[in-house]
Amino acid sequence: MLSGKATVTMRLMIFLKDWLSRHILETDRRFGEYMAKKQAA
Fold it and tell me: What confidence score (pLDDT) does residue 1 get?
């Protein structure tokens, strides 16, 4: 932190964007499939 302000690097922003995209595309999709099976049962 500089002068009490938080800084975020471009590298960190790219990492977070990629992580969130993967999370949505993989983990949330699998959770949706799981919930769909639970409702069908």
Answer: 52
Number of domains in the chain: 1
Look up tokens 């595309």; give the residue.
25
**Number of helices and strands in the chain (H, E):** 2, 0
Spatial distance between the Cα atoms of 35 and 23, rounded to a whole number of angstroms: 17
Domain coverage including residue 5:
1-41
What pLDDT, in 10s, does the model give residues 7-31?
A: 889 999 999 999 999 888 898 889 9
Tally the residues of the chain. Answer: 41
Q: Is 9 left (phi over 0), alpha (psi -120 to 50) or beta?
A: beta
pTM: 0.53
